[in-house]
Amino acid sequence: MLDGLVGALDARAPTSETPGVVAKRLARGFSTTEGTWGVELLQAAALGVLEAEAPLASDERTVVLEFFSGVRMAMAREAQARQEQLEQAVVRGEERYLVAARAAGFAVWDWDLSSQSLHWSHSIEALLGHSVDALSSLGLWLEHVHPSDRERVGEGLRNAVEGGRTRWSDAFQFLKRDGTYAGVLGRAWILHDTVGKAVRVVGGLIDVTEQRRLEQELKKAVRVRDDFLSIASHELRTPLTALQIQVQSLTKGPLLAALDGRVKARVEGAERSVGRMIQLVDDLLDVSRVNAGRLELHLEEVNLSELVQEVVTRMQPEVGRSGSQLSMSLPERVTGRWDRSRVDQVFCNLLSNALKYGEGKPVEATVEMDEARAWLRVHDHGIGIAPEEQGRIFERFERSVSDRHFGGFGLGLWIVRRVLDAMGGSIRVQSALGKGATFVVELPRHPVAPEKRVGGQPHSANVRGDDE
């Protein structure tokens, strides 16, 4: 009988079905869309097989029909239950989405380009106070954009749609229902049909008013901090300079011969400490100058080789204390128009670092040039810098090693980089952990004033020539 039923099902199946497929689908269950067709097919097949053996009595036929009627009712109830579960899931999903959107200050809009209608999520009411019907077209939406932003926003959105783009974004002021403007960020995704025509734009607005207010508070706090650093540094430097003069009167004046060995060593140590404190104060001053755009450059003709030799001579006590042997390769003349004191500052910082981190091993300083550029290299054979640290060392308050063993604010290389930026130069490092480091400074021999440079980022510096 089973074989007969399978054969009957195949006989009644659509011509596209292969033999036995219908029976297999019946065995594993029908989808919702197949349910009615499947039950009707099974009922007809069953009646056909039963009546092929012997005609059915009316009560027997009624039993069969009632059975399949019960199957249809059970399937209908199952389909209804599944539909209700799906609808509840959708409702819960929408509720969670609306709660999340409102919590994030986010409103969603859907622009149907065929009907030119604009639909908003209900979160627009919480975000900007408008009802979902108040902004039902692009024209109404643009009317609420601040006049100073309206043309840019409208043209940008239309150009994105007509230009075949897939995304659009802009920041602007949007009129709320209470008459005030909110700072918003708008974003949209543009959907296209199979031939590439834009058919729909789905986007959103997020309120960034508070974010902008916090940014303004932060900028103000940074200005206050920089002003404090500038004032404090000036106030600290005056007494420190006076103290340095007093100490130097002992270490470099006629009184030096009268000092015994222990006192002399202590006075020289005090001189180094005062000099170090002055350097820290100068670093803080430079930070405030760079941040405020008040880093002044006085450009003049400078012989880089001569300047390097002067710095080395001045730093001989520090070279001696480091235990490193310093060698130099200096052409007779390597000239360019630079700020002499700032280039001096750059080389002092690099040489001081090489002596500090060089572990008493040799240090080399090299100067080179071509027609357009000059290079200053400082190479040590010390502790080196790991590759992952090499970008970070040029940031403020950063160093590649712990400050337990090496003092300072971690500002030296940051200031060096900003000074070189201001002169159109650059600095890079070549190093590996445990294999020393080479810092390479590149300077244009005839730098262009910051406001005349082409390409790159503008530099905050006031430039004066030696004829001003």
Any chance you could write out the topology, listing elements then pairs?
Layout: H1 2-12, H2 21-28, H3 35-53, H4 58-103, E1 106-112, E2 117-120, H5 123-128, H6 138-143, H7 147-162, E3 167-175, E4 181-192, E5 198-207, H8 209-251, H9 261-292, E6 296-303, H10 304-314, H11 316-322, E7 326-329, E8 335-339, H12 340-357, E9 363-369, E10 373-380, H13 412-422, E11 426-431, E12 437-444, E13 462-465
Can you walk through the features of this model?
- This protein is α+β, with helices and mostly antiparallel strands.
- It is built from 13 helices and 13 strands.
- The chain has helices spanning 2-12, 21-28, 35-53, 58-103, 123-128, 138-143, 147-162, 209-251, 261-292, 304-314, 316-322, 340-357, 412-422, and strands spanning 106-112, 117-120, 167-175, 181-192, 198-207, 296-303, 326-329, 335-339, 363-369, 373-380, 426-431, 437-444, 462-465.
- The strands form three sheets. Strands 2-1-5-4-3 form a five-stranded antiparallel β-sheet, sandwiched between helices. A five-stranded mixed β-sheet has the order 7-9-10-12-11, with helices on one face.
- A hairpin with a 4-residue loop joins β1 (106-112) and β2 (117-120).
- α3 runs antiparallel to α4 and α8 (209-251) runs antiparallel to α9.
- The chain starts with a helix and ends with a strand.
- Residues 12-33 and 451-460 have low confidence and may be disordered.
